[in-house]
Design goal:
The chain has 235 residues and is α/β, with parallel strands linked by helices. The chain has 9 helices and 8 strands. It has one domain: P-loop containing nucleotide triphosphate hydrolases (Rossmann fold), CATH 3.40.50.300. A hairpin with a 6-residue loop joins strand 3 and strand 4. Helix 2 packs across helix 3. The site of cytidine-5'-monophosphate has 13 residues, from helix 2, helix 4 and helix 8.
């Protein structure tokens, strides 16, 4: 990685953690837009690491080799247009990292402590003015333990599988709902059982169950909670 920006420790951080399919990606982006804050999709960094390893013919199980790849990750997030374009080694990897294969790969590489350590400073460098919304599994517990607002967003595994199924169908990927549910349960298990930075709410997180809530309802609750903590839109 080229030289990283020093984090601005005075910039407020909102962490939104939770399992896959809880809606945190969508919610985090909307919160960032509403507040005019920067946005960190930490899952994308694990997905990019898995993709980079695949491109270099490196086994996801090879912790040292994958950690080296994570340390040297050449990524750019191009925001500004309709959607964020993610470049890996200068090539557009936006769609490639969202494939089911990289969902699996990312959760495998994310279980290695050395890979997590290699991505830590890169994640911290996203803390810049006017503020940051950070989406992931361990944003509130490990990466930004001093965040002013911590949310843990969850939903039942069945509901999360349904949402993912709809998303993939819309993209024209054919998948079985049952297989997705099994994958989600396996991923939850790996993410919450791993020794380093397991998926769990921070002690001071607000837990929000989105199973029966619409996106707008979840967004309103997060923004209300942020406002109670003194965070309002920038500029
Ligand atoms: O959020 P997303 O589904 O894109 O994350 C992909 C994978 O990366 C997750 O299944 C999880 O294993 C891992 N991850 C993580 N810690 C984070 C973000 C993602 O371990 N902060």
């Amino acid at each position: 990685m080229t030289a990283l920006r020093q984090p601005d420790k005075t910039a407020p951080v909102i962490t939104i953690d939770g399992p896959s399919g809880s809606g945190k990606g969508t919610i985090s982006q909307l919160v960032a837009q509403k507040l005019k804050f920067n946005f960190l999709d930490s899952g994308a960094l694990y997905r990019l690491t898995a993709l980079a390893a695949r491109k270099r013919n490196t086994d996801w199980a090879d912790e040292d080799a994958v950690a080296k790849i994570a340390e040297e990750l050449q990524v750019q997030f191009e925001t500004g247009g309709e959607k964020t374009v993610i470049l890996l080694d200068g090539d557009d990897a936006t769609d490639a990292i969202r494939k089911e294969e990289m969902s699996l790969g990312s959760s495998k590489v994310a279980a290695h402590p050395k890979v997590r350590a290699a991505l830590l400073n890169l994640q911290k460098s996203f803390q810049q003015g006017p503020g940051l919304v950070a989406d992931g599994r361990d944003m509130g517990t490990t990466v930004f333990p001093d965040a002013s607002v911590k949310i843990f967003l969850t939903a039942s595994a069945e509901e999360r599988a349904q949402r993912r199924y709809k998303q993939l169908m819309e993209k024209g990927e054919s998948v079985s709902l049952r297989a997705l549910l099994t994958d989600i349960q396996a991923r939850d298990e790996r993410d919450s059982q791993r020794a380093v930075s397991p998926l769990k709410p921070a002690d001071d997180a607000l837990i929000l169950d989105s199973t029966t809530l619409s996106i707008v309802e979840v967004l309103d609750r997060v923004l209300d909670y942020a406002a109670q903590k003194g965070i309002t839109p920038a500029g």
